[in-house]
Specification:
This protein has 248 residues and is mostly helical. The chain has helices at 2-26, 31-69, 78-110, 119-122, 128-137, 148-155, 162-178, 189-201, 204-225, 228-231; strands spanning 140-142, 180-182. The longest helix has 39 residues, at 31-69. The model is unreliable at 244-248 (pLDDT under 50).
Length: 248
């Protein structure tokens, strides 16, 4: 979850300086509201991820004590502590995907090539975001992250045949699905070990800090490029309505 979110934000961060310059010279300030909305959604996803990681840390402390002393039986309900957060994050990531897909054409015009590599992550019959959302829709939380190389291969489709493209997508699917734990059942000692490994190996706090730093860069570009008038939504603007579908 965090690796995919980081890649999405990194791509926007790289595109924004050129897009901001184009907005100033070509009077395209109507993009301000769109970009501000995307920034707000990305910030929401970052905060939700931070809450999930903090809850996992609390769970491991309490479960470790329970396994040693047997005096905290509610520790085994750790999955329930993040269940609503996981579904909130699923909803937020879905909105981010919709916003970025809507903006991709405009951003590619302003900063050619900057967003093209997002297509395998956001659009098409099978993409990384849809795989992640499907896992989370089943009440499961991924305890493993696709590697940067796996995501880079997924984005690099030049000269790749359909079979190879499928294999790259399937590699990401396997990581997310096989490394997921259910938030609907008791978290016994086996799940506890999975959570500990996730916190130690994936270093989610470090990823959250990196995401926070990238978001600060986006905020600074928006602040230096657009005025309050540019980012205020027009009354009745339907582009930003929350859409519900079968995944939510």
């Amino acid at each position: 979850m965090l690796e995919l979110l980081k890649v999405l934000i990194e791509t926007v961060t790289r595109a924004l300086p050129a897009a901001g310059a184009a907005a100033r010279t070509r009077r395209l300030n109507e993009m301000g509201a769109e970009l501000f909305m995307l920034y707000a959604q990305l910030n929401e996803a970052m905060l939700c991820a931070e809450d999930i990681v903090q809850s996992l840390r609390t769970y491991t402390r309490r479960m470790a004590r329970h396994l040693e002393h047997g005096d905290d039986p509610s520790a085994v309900t750790g999955g329930a502590w993040i269940r609503d957060m996981v579904q909130q994050q699923r909803f937020t990531l879905d909105r981010i995907g919709s916003t970025m897909s809507r903006l991709s054409t405009q951003l590619n015009i302003l900063a050619p090539g900057s967003i093209a590599r997002l297509a395998p992550l956001l659009r098409g019959k099978v993409n990384a975001l849809d795989i992640l959302l499907a896992v989370m829709a089943r009440g499961r939380f991924p305890m493993a992250e696709p590697s940067p190389r796996q995501i880079a291969l997924l984005q690099d489709q030049a000269g790749v045949d359909d079979h190879e493209a499928f294999m790259r997508v399937d590699a990401v699917r396997s990581v997310l699905e096989n490394g997921a734990v259910s938030t609907e059942h008791r978290w016994d000692e086996h799940v506890y070990r999975d959570v500990v490994r996730y916190l130690e190996n994936e270093r989610p706090e470090e990823r959250v800090r990196e995401i926070r730093s990238l978001l600060e860069e986006i905020r600074q570009v928006l602040d230096s490029t657009f005025s309050l008038q540019d980012v205020l939504l027009k009354v009745g603007d339907r582009r930003f309505r929350t859409a519900f579908d079968d995944r939510i």
